[in-house]
C-alpha cells in the first residue's frame, strides 16, 4: 500500500451545510473501506485568537454509525420535543424503562452447602 493511499481522505458521499448564527453545522455521509456508510456531524465556530490577531475555526465532530441511527434519532427527537413542549412524552418514558435492567427482582440463594463436600 502506498503512503498516499494509507492517509487518503474519505470523500463525502453526501454533504449538507446548515448555517445557524455564529455556528455552522456540517452533515457529511462517508463510507468505510468495507463500504459501510456513517455520518459525521461537525460544529464549526469562528473564534478570534488575541495573541496572533487572527480568526480561526474551532471544530467539534461526532461520528455516528448505522447501527446507532434509530437510537440517536429517538434521543434527539425526545430532547427537541422536551425543549419545545417542556414535557416528556409517555411513550418515550415507556421506552426508557424497557431498556433499563430490572434490578428489583431478588434471587433466593443458600450458601449452607458450600464447602462441606470439598474434602470428600
Give an overview in words.
Helix content is 26%, strand content 34%. Residues 101-120 have low confidence and may be disordered. Strand 2 (23-31) and strand 3 (37-49) form a beta hairpin. Strands 1-2-3-4 form a 4-stranded antiparallel sheet, with no helix packed on it. The chain has a domain at 10-86: Roll (Nuclear Transport Factor 2, Chain: A), CATH 3.10.450.700. The protein starts with a helix and ends in a 21-residue tail after the last helix. The chain has helices at residues 3-6, 69-85, 90-99, and strands at 14-20, 23-31, 37-49, 54-65. The longest helix has 17 residues, at 69-85. It is α+β, with helices and mostly antiparallel strands and 120 residues long. The chain has 3 helices and 4 strands, in the order αββββαα.
Shape: flat
Helix percent band:
25-40%
Strand segment tally? 4
What is the C-level CATH assignment of one domain?
A: Alpha Beta
| Main sheet specs | 4 strands, antiparallel
Amino- and carboxy-terminal Cα gap: 63 Å
Q: What's the helix-strand series?
A: HEEEEHH
State the strand order across the main sheet.
1-2-3-4
Percentage of β-strand residues: 25-35%
CATH architecture of one domain: Roll
H/I helix tally: 3
